[in-house]
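Recall from the previous lesson that a structure prediction takes nothing but the amino acid sequence as input. Here we apply that procedure to Heat-inducible transcription repressor HrcA C-terminal domain-containing protein from marine sediment metagenome. The sequence below is the only information supplied.
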Amino acid sequence: WAELAAAILARSVENLALVTAPHPARARLRRLELVKAGDVLALLIVVLHEGHLREETLALDRSISQDELSRTAQRLSWLFAGLSAGQMQEQTVELSPFEDEVTQAIIRVLQVEDESSYEPAYLDGLRNVLRQPEFSQPQTMLDFLDVLDERSLPRLIPFHWVVPGHVTVIIGAENPEDAMRQCSLVVGRYGRPGGMTGALGVLGPTRLPYRRATSMVRYMGSLLGELVNLYYS
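The prediction returns the following tokens.
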């Protein structure tokens, strides 16, 4: 869906379009495993609710047996299964120092997952943008291309400003990132609040056709939202 939506959006507004695939609104823990990796090292394996695995190595202040690691993993899985990073931080449960250390590591993993949830993204319409007179100078073009990496660009766009179902216009210097201040953005989010959600947007020079871009982002967002509701209901 996302790749096709980006192509349609780029062709409609004759600028660059970006669409991310749907993902959970917040990463949630399904369970965790702790595996002894050395005398004072343990491997933390975090299984996310959607089935993805994330790993982190923990430096221990003492040697801990595999049995104790397994008991700790079992207890924390029971306490925190189904929770997001924010929900885990709100819990008031009594933990041992080691359990607290592992819990903080899990929270870090979930927070990193939340921050990277809008990447990678599908991009389309690069030639549309580079044909614009604003990007005709070689250095301007190179500066613009530097931000058009499919993994870094989503981090530069403030999708978190946007309420699902709404469209936000960000013009030039209003962009929070210096690298984006030569551009304007029309961005939106689609999906189910608290459930699966994604983002989409149009990027171009500050003389972007705002009315057309806004209507197309809103329209494509509504279509993608319907697909999410059908597929993930």
